[in-house]
Amino acid sequence: MDTITQFTRRDSSHLARMTDQFRRERALARADVDHVFEKWFGDLCSGWLEALDARDDPRWTEDQFDRFILAVDEHLPFRDALVLSALDTMSLEDMEEAVTHPFSERAAEITVTRTWEYLNNPYCMPDLDRTAFAVSIIRTASSAISESPSVGFYSMEAYLCWWMGRLTESEAANEKAIQLSEDYPLARIMRNTYTRGLVPAWLRRQIIEHAGQEGEEVR
């Protein structure tokens, strides 16, 4: 296995064929679609988590890297699991459940609980170093498919940068996503977030506390 930095300029026609194959298998699977998800994406979870934990590039085969690229746009539960595991540590069991059995009760609980906590608890702050490293992986992967850019990668970058409070970078990445697809749900959510001036709960708390301290100094 190699680090992903060695996988440059992925073959867009090969990725298109892989995508067609995945879609056919998913359509044929019907009730047993979880088996398809496990086959295509289950082995990617450990490499991703190990990379984030060690702050080291994922060590994947070329086939795994290509499936990673495919998954971000084709399997939204995988994209969402990447985001949640980038904000803070996540067990391999939880990530695999969210990715390979996305319609299970446990997968829903994992996703909803984590998302609610970050959205609403002003003292729940992402692991900024971990999240920043995840963004670097996403950018590396995105550069490997620059001839056929991915709206999923750009919107995921925008979302994670927003969580870190890097709002200018977030808007720039999301603008690239919007240019590719104005209808992509996460890109639309992020655009609405900027329009409304929303910031993460932890950052809002810090802004309020800072304003309060300045007020004390003035008095």
User: Kindly state the mean pLDDT as a whole number?
Assistant: 89
Largest sheet: 2 strands, antiparallel
N-end to C-end Cα span: 61 Å
Query: What gross morphology would you assign?
Result: globular
How many discrete domains? 1
How many helices? The count is: 12
List the uncertain runs.
none
What is the N-to-C order of secondary-structure elements (H for helix, E for strand)?
EHHHEHHHHHHHHH
Strands of the widest sheet, in order across it, are 1-2
| Total strand segments | 2
Residue fraction in strands = under 5%
Features:
219 residues; mainly alpha; two-stranded antiparallel sheet; 12 helices; 2 strands; 74% helix
Model description:
The protein has 219 residues and is mainly α. The chain has one domain (2-218). The protein is 74% helix and 2% strand. The chain is built from twelve helices and two strands. Strands 1-2 form a two-stranded antiparallel sheet. α5 (76-87) runs antiparallel to α6 (92-100). It is globular and about 60 Å long. It starts with a strand and ends with a helix.
Write the layout of secondary structure elements.
Blueprint: E1 2-3, H1 12-29, H2 33-41, H3 44-54, E2 59-60, H4 62-74, H5 76-87, H6 92-100, H7 105-120, H8 128-143, H9 151-164, H10 167-180, H11 185-195, H12 201-218
Antiparallel strand pairs: 1-2
Summarize the structure.
It contains twelve helices and two strands.
